[in-house]
Amino acid sequence: MNEVQIIARNNVKVLGTGERTLMLAHGFGCDQSMWKYILPAFEPHYRIVLFDYVGSGHSDLSAYTSERYGSLRGYVQDVLDIMEALELQDVTFIGHSVSSMIGMLASIERPEYFAELIMIGPSARYLNDEGYVGGFEKSDVTELLDMMELNFAGWAGFLAPIAMKNPEMPSLSQALERSFISTDPVITREFAEVTFFSDCREELPKAKVPILIMQCSDDSIVPISAGEYLHAHLRDSSFRLMEAKGHYPHISHPEETISLIQSYLNT
Questions:
Q1: Left (φ > 0), alpha (ψ -120 to 50) or beta: where does 246 sit?
Q2: Can you give the residue ranges of the AB hydrolase-1 domain (predicted)?
Q3: Catalytic residue positions?
Q4: Under CATH, what is the fold of the domain 3-266?
Q5: pLDDT tens-digit series, residues 220-256
């Protein structure tokens, strides 16, 4: 696949003209539009790369196969393909949720592409394990996947307000719900299964680039302990506990999100 095909496949957009490059990677059930609240703060000063994973947003759905995207590896390859197509180097990769681990895995494979990682609401493993609190029991995830299969719209309406966790701003939950239901139900369910059953804990010691971990104070998807676990096992990491609640601070609390990212980039 050549550069033009990759750009089209992942609906890649390049904004801004700054010397430093920020690559923004959306989380599960979302697309690049989720960054719209923080983009104005960075576009005048940075070159910004936006994209949709195959199966999300306005990506080429015909490029999706369960074989490629049956693990995080397929999404890692999307990131690396885009970086190669744009000939990127020394990128600041900003990943939300599962994209934090996708970016980390990509940086382990090709560290020369990355200057640093900024992780928003990251988790190395979403399931509870012996001596580890990920936030979910396996039965919780199984029920969620069953709901997606039986009533996709009902699943979206159930999960969106729980994940957003800002009831005083119902429009944000409604927008997230619309994002969820705009995706292909089969692909989204497979992405959910890959996300919630992933386990990247053994990979953490291999990460070599500097990392900022941004953890919300009350997140229904990722408990504080999961962020603290990452900080303890990533060799060059900084940990910031946000005042923001919910799993989408770049949407619900853009000012705080912008401030923490800018502070990290300036140091």
A1: left
A2: 24-258
A3: 97, 219, 247
A4: Rossmann fold (3.40.50)
A5: 999 999 999 999 999 999 999 999 999 999 999 999 9
